[in-house]
Amino acid sequence: MNGAEKKKATPADKAVNAIIVLIILVFVAVGVYATYGKISEGVTNKEIESGKAEATVEYLANQAGQSVEDYLAQYGLTLGDTIKAKTTESEMLDNMTIENYAKYNGQEADSFLQGMSDSVTKDTVWKDLMAMPVSQVIDADALAQVKKQYQIGDDEISDSTTYEEFQKVLYQKASAASQAAQATDAPTAETTETPAE
Fold first, then answer.
1. What gap in Å lies between CA 50 and CA 52, rounded to an integer?
2. Residues of the chain with pLDDT under 70
3. Is residue 164 within 8 Å of residue 131, measured between CB atoms?
4. Which residues, at least 6 apart from 69, have a Cβ–Cβ distance to it below 8 Å?
5. CB 57 within 8 Å of CB 87
6. What φ, ψ does residue 145 adopt, rounded to 5°?
7. Residues sharing a CB contact under 8 Å with residue 126, sequence separation 6 or more, in sequence order
8. CA–CA dist 132, 151 (Å, integer)
9. C-alpha to C-alpha distance for 104 and 96, rounded to whole angstroms
10. Which chain regions cross the lipid bilayer (predicted)?
């Protein structure tokens, strides 16, 4: 007989092979599970850094070298039903008081509130402010002055216009005025005549 003959696998050999395959699969699954969070976090971070995705609370906390809880606490927020680690920056800002919103943007709340009516306080939540009628947020004289300065008609901003809508109209008008100013400041092509020789 030739020594190179193949030995038949016994039921015990098959069971051992099945157990080895099962153990390998368990190790692979555990490895994938353990690294998935880090891989997913890395992909998310790259999307945020490239501007393809909005920053999350977790990302902002990591950038500041803080825990999510400590990061939120400095702005009067806590983790819960409204704010989670994956909450976007804009959603986080919506839930801040005006005082904390101003702090987040490097401003003082008092200067932020200048020109606003008494119905808006440091404790007003930002998303509530945005939903308020502009006539309730801004003093009537200040509103009239802004409308005159940017040539905004009553059809564009009325007393029932929300503060958020008012800001959008104001931004559009300010952008248009800026573009018009740049167009008039741009050098014009002058024709120069060559003197006759």
1. 6
2. 1-6, 9, 14, 26-44, 186-197
3. yes
4. 78, 79
5. yes
6. -65, -45
7. 93, 94, 95, 96, 97, 98, 101
8. 22
9. 9
10. 15-36
